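sorry for the late reply, my laptop died twice this morning and i had to redo everyting from scratch. anyway the thing you sent over, i finally got around to it. pasting the sequence first so we're on the same page, its 384 residues, then the predicted structure underneath. double check i copied it right bc i was rushing
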Amino acid sequence: MDFTFTEEQQAAVEAAKAVFSSTTPDGVPSPALTPGAVADDIDRALWRRLADADLLGLTLDPRHGGSGLDPLALCLVLRESAKVLARVPLLETAAAALAVQRYGAPELCAAVLPRAARGDLVLTVATAGRTGHGPAELAVQARRTGGDWVLDGVQTAVPWAAEADHLLIPAHTGAGPALLALVPRDRAGIGLDDQVSTSGERLAEVRLDGVRAAAHEVLDADGAWDWLRALLTTGTCALALGVGTAVLDLTSSYTSTREQFGHPLATFQAVAVQTADRYIDLRAMEATLWQAAWRLSRDEKDPEATANGALPVAGDVAVAKMWAADGVRRVVQTAQHLHGGFGAVTDYPLHRYHAWAKQLELSLGSAAAHEEELGELLAAHTLP
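ok and here's the structure:
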């Protein structure tokens, strides 16, 4: 089997490394030292550099100003962004734009996608529901009124909502599949209450009171929300891999130079064993991530996609999130242990990585939640 990335995917990684080379984890105030959110806005300068490097339209078709690459390429860029804790809604904007391209009306695609590729529009997605537990689509009800839809409900912990130009809101109709409504943040009936994430970034509770969405602003195809949630979950795994990789690099550098009893910490067997275990975690996170991203990148109508009794793509996504959630937690916990008291110093980046790791661990479902989902898939799956 050939696990080599394509030339286009590798070029995207090189472009991302160049853009992120000037970004450091300590570029914004520490969440441990800043009351409330660490900043009032996304990193607009970085957002512009990403747009100039054609990385915001990476997965969009060329007719919309994109590069036409697949979710694998997006995950590669997300991994690089997380290594430096880039404060940009790259995952949310890319995933929402790709959902619009895949399921949206032509007039919605024409109005949104070229502007998103240029960096002129910031998009985000509500994924946590009303409480952070249970299906997000059940938190908002959508009902038909004439030719429009009317939305009522509450979505909590919506990332970058205060900075986004449009919100992609999952909702239920009481019958049939969940739908997705892409509405401007300043649409009448939308209210935002500030919240703060574990990583110190701004979130918002989004309240929808009779919010109207035109028919062309709604994605009502069967499976649209499930596909988008799988893409967002896989992207979150890529972010976790980036954080874990950077943390293990920090730990390796520290234990190689820090001496105790006249010898580097890395030469002690107990230290070497712990770092080796975390390296294994990262490799497992990587393998399961690329499997899920590869499945998402394939045409779902391809008869080979579910050949030989393969589970639906949701199974691969669940496995990837299980490893990402548990793996990144173990990596940062081991790093804190091996750094000793130095790991708590607030002018050293480890504590910021730890906060991001905890946020990513629980985003879009903990390991336990995805274990339960995988169990249900296995129980319902019929072998050929």
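The beta strands are 123-125, 140-145, 148-159, 166-171, 179-184, 190-196, 202-213, 218-219, 259-260, 263-264.
thats about all i looked at so far, will dig more tmrw
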